[in-house]
């Protein structure tokens, strides 16, 4: 079950760290970082049911909405950071 109740000591500190991590990144780099962060945190959670519930809520669906079905879908291309080597 997805915990949607307050569960962090300092949301402001985390938000500041998140914004700081994005500083200096181009838009595509920022999107790639967000994608990697989502995958890292998803791996940490490790429960497909919880992740499906979170995906539904993030899309604006009520918690009781049908879970996301991946059956019959093709894989999407991975997000790769785009940068110019120095």
Structure report:
By secondary structure, this protein is an all-alpha fold. It has a domain at about 25-65. The chain has three helices and no strands. The longest helix has 19 residues, at about 25-45. The protein starts with 10 loop residues before the first helix and ends in a 28-residue tail after the last helix. The model has no long low-confidence stretch (mean pLDDT about 85).
Overall body shape: globular
Task: Tell me the major beta sheet.
Answer: none
Low-confidence segments, ≥5 residues, pLDDT <50?
A: none
Mean pLDDT: 83
**DSSP, total strands:** 0
How many DSSP helices?
A: 3
* Approximate helicity band: 40-55%
Element string (H = helix, E = strand)? HHH
Structural class: mainly alpha
Q: Give the amount of beta strand, in percent.
A: under 5%
Give the topology, please.
Layout: H1 11-22, H2 27-45, H3 48-58
Give a short synopsis of this structure.
By secondary structure, this protein is mainly alpha-helical.
Name a few traits of the molecule.
86 residues, mainly alpha, globular
């Amino acid at each position: 079950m997805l915990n949607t109740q307050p569960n962090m000591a300092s949301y402001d500190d985390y938000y500041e760290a998140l914004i700081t991590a994005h500083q200096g990144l181009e838009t595509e780099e920022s999107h790639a970082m967000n994608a990697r962060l989502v995958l890292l945190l998803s791996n940490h959670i490790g429960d497909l049911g919880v992740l499906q519930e979170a995906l539904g809520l993030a899309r604006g669906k009520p918690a009781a909405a049908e879970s996301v079905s991946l059956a019959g879908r093709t894989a999407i291309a991975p997000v790769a950071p785009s940068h110019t080597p120095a």
